[in-house]
Design goal:
Radius of gyration of chain B: 11 Å
Shape of chain B: globular
Order of helices and strands of chain A: HHHHHHHHHH
Largest interface: A-B, 16 and 15 residues
Structural class of chain B: alpha+beta
Order of helices and strands of chain B: EHEHEE
Strand content of chain A: under 5%
Strand content of chain B: 25-35%
Number of strands of chain B: 4
Largest sheet of chain A: none
Structural class of chain A: mainly alpha
CATH architecture of the largest domain in chain A: Orthogonal Bundle
Distance between the termini of chain B: 19 Å
Largest sheet of chain B: 4 strands, mixed
Helix content of chain B: 25-40%
Helix content of chain A: over 70%
CATH superfamily of the largest domain in chain A: Tetracycline Repressor, domain 2
Number of strands of chain A: 0
Oligomer: heterodimer
Strand order of the largest sheet of chain B: 1-2-4-3
Chain lengths: 201, 76
Amino acid sequence: MAKRLKAAERRASILAVAKVLFADKGYHGVAVDEIASRLGVSPAVLYHHFPSKEALYGEVLDTLAAQRESYVDAALQSPDDFGSVLLRMTLVFASSVARDPDYLKMEMLSTLEGAQVARQFFESHWKSFSDYIEYSMRELSQQNAVSQINPRTAGLMFQGMVREALYAKCILHSSRYQSTHLPDLITQLVGLFLNAIQYKE
Amino acid sequence: MNTHQAELDTRGLNCPLPILRAKKSLSQLTAGEILQIRATDPGSVKDFEAFCKQTGNELLSSSEVGGEFIFLLKKQ
């Protein structure tokens, strides 16, 4: 019989087990009953902490992301120009993914599984970057500090580039990039991106 | 009730834009003046707590009405 845990401990253990299962099987591949059975509790215990499987999935996504404080810290440090803030935020994101590659597995599976779950991923993580790039580029283009590229397309370029680097380093462990540390790779890619949009500080 | 000297509308924006705009708005105020910020990102509650902790500005109040968040920040 499962040991009785305090509410916070129980919640943390549910999130830990759910994360592993979601990363292995995707959102649709995991039933609430399976998570409960792994924990040795009844599904009612899970529903006591999370109203639905969707809510649980959302919480797993939130716990996988870097702490918001780290992003606030990255945004507030100096220098505070667009390129420097973008680089620091991307490094925070990359290091959180490197610490917990289950995040990437969940994202890959969510993309295959369907629009709703993948949208949740975008809203939880990539939207911050896309919005930041889009709004900043609109302002910067008025000052001629970036080229006249569609900011939304630029956001997509950035997202694709960073995600591919994370896949290569954290999931595939590609030998091609073995000699380059992840922060160096991210720094180079952000530099390429800033060159591509002809960013001038 | 607190009166404020400046307003910032960050509705529809996600981290880090609200905090970067708040930083800019606060830089135009003098010490003791109050900035009112409106936001829709639920994460902005934690963001502005962290913002004040890191910048030394004071979070006078944080409230939510119908999915919209209102913060009052006092410049240090």
